[in-house]
Automatic annotation (TrEMBL):
Pfam families: ABC_tran. PROSITE patterns: ABC_TRANSPORTER_1 (PS00211), ABC_TRANSPORTER_2 (PS50893). It comes from Spelaeicoccus albus. InterPro entries: AAA+_ATPase, ABC_ATPase_HisP-typ, ABC_transporter-like_ATP-bd, ABC_transporter-like_CS, Ectoine_EhuA, MetN_ABC_transporter-like, P-loop_NTPase. Belongs to the ABC transporter superfamily. Residues 15-260 form the ABC transporter domain. GO terms for cellular component: plasma membrane. This is Polar amino acid transport system ATP-binding protein. The keyword Membrane applies. It is found in: Cell membrane. It is a peripheral membrane protein. It comes from the Bacteria. GO terms for molecular function: ABC-type amino acid transporter activity; ATP binding; ATP hydrolysis activity.
């Protein structure tokens, strides 16, 4: 039976940034960032390198910590809460609980090189979620089949191509049953001829699940195919946001037009 908290979460966006700042020394990467991602949305962040896109994903994954402001996951504060007019850091136990709802696929795969493929996938479900090894292995095999690597469970990452490693990384993220999936330039380290293999798997996930996706990519066709919203970033702020057809066919801002003209020409 749904609890009061479940009912409250149901009406909240999956992700909400509220006045978020991020600085690295004197370098201001994000300033007063406000935006939301609704449950089930597929939101793609585009923009030039250094505009803050990947930093946003790393903040949601708690790999970086915001300098100011607040981030909420399903209405729950992620790392900080306001109490008595003060910005108070939440305990690591709370952060870990919220983070269980979030999966991330990185540019560089980040697989454990000393572990077999199957062990890479079951590591987090067994140690973080407390899943039995038998159940975790059964699920991992289903996911390997889904990403076309059913015959690679006993291989080590060094025995796989870059595209195969990235497909393992996708399976590993999905093994945690995330409500939110963060995708950070997942094809940028791949050879061009295998990019579509990975993108097609992600398209299938978008078509067949209700996972909320927050995506950083330079693959504009993928952004157009998968997203229901696209946000153009520059200088740590949202320059423009629109549905894909509007963003790619008739952007309103000159900065967006200049960026897309350069990217699509390349």
């Amino acid at each position: 039976m749904p609890t009061q908290l479940d009912n409250a979460r149901r009406g909240e966006p999956a992700i909400r940034f509220d006045g978020v700042d991020k600085r690295f020394g004197d370098n201001v990467v994000l300033r007063g960032l406000d935006f939301t991602v609704a449950k089930g949305d597929r939101v793609t962040l585009i923009g030039p390198s250094g505009s803050g896109k990947t930093t946003i994903l790393r903040l949601v994954m708690t790999l970086e910590e915001a300098t100011g402001g607040y981030i909420y996951i399903d209405g729950e504060p992620l790392t900080h809460v306001e109490r008595g007019g003060q910005r108070i850091a939440l305990k690591e136990k709370h952060r870990n609980e919220v983070r269980k709802r979030i999966g991330m696929v990185f540019q560089q795969f980040n697989l454990f090189p000393n572990m077999k493929v199957i062990d890479n996938i079951i590591e987090a479900p067994t140690h973080v979620l407390g899943m039995s090894k038998a159940d975790a292995v059964a699920k991992a095999r289903q996911l390997l089949d889904k990403v076309g690597l059913a015959d690679k469970e006993d291989s080590h990452p060094s025995q796989l191509s870059g595209g195969q490693q990235q497909r393992v990384a996708i399976a590993r993220a999905l093994a945690m049953d995330p409500e939110i999936l963060l995708l950070d330039e997942v094809t940028s380290a791949l050879d061009p001829e295998i990019v579509n293999d990975v993108l097609n798997i992600l398209r299938d996930i978008a078509d067949t699940t209700d996972i909320t996706m927050l995506i950083v990519t330079h693959e504009m066709q993928f952004a157009r195919d998968v997203s229901n919203r696209v946000l153009m970033f520059d200088g740590g702020r949202v320059v423009e946001e629109a549905e894909p057809d509007v963003m790619f066919k008739d952007p309103k801002e000159q900065r967006t037009r200049d960026f897309l003209s350069a990217v699509l020409r390349d």
